[in-house]
Amino acid sequence: MAQEGESGLQLCAEQAPDAAFLDIHLPGPDGMTLAAHLARLPRPPLIVFTTGHAHRACEAFRIEAVDYLLKPLEPAHILDTVSRLQKLLARPPAPLPARSEPVSETGPGFHEGRLPVRSGREDVTLLLPRWEIVAALRHDRRTWIHTAQAEYETYYPLTVLLRGLPDPPFLRVARESIVNLQAVEEVLHYGDRLYQVRLRDRRKTCVEVSRSSAKRLSALLKTS
Q1: Are 77 and 51 spatial neighbours (Cβ–Cβ below 8 Å)?
Q2: How many CA atoms lie within 13 A of 10 on its CB side?
Q3: CB–CB of 144/150 below 8 Å?
């Protein structure tokens, strides 16, 4: 067991463990910084954070931590985490995708197909299944994740989200907008390659479709 970040990195580099339990607050590099260094090892370990601070859970899942355990640690929670680690380690290595194929199963920010977002309650992080996402809309230097019932303020770049959202049904309809076509209630066509889509969210949000995306949208609508 290492007492600070630098010795923890050295220990993992030498021993190549399957998993590492990291505290957030460590002397020297903190747990988040240490996790970033561990990810660059030839055989990086799976990461579990153990901490008394809930407010960095979203950051932890962005770097694809397996779990985020809050102190005081409960034996049942530890056993559940160890069980998850064992299942992950028992999986055969995934084949590398061909270079011409986009990565659509997972991406930075997504954790086993779920996206961490902060809820309206302090220190509460929700893990949204990707299929609950109606749209990701960029404005006011934020990315707003819309579901059928709510909107969540995040800082995810749209380019990052696209890596974890399969196409179709997710389509980038404009520079600042990604839409789940399965959650579109209406398509409004009001001119040559001029479209708006009305979403099936609580606000019935209308999203303008760029001219460059209109042809793709039209083709997808004809095949659906």
Answers
A1: no
A2: 6
A3: no
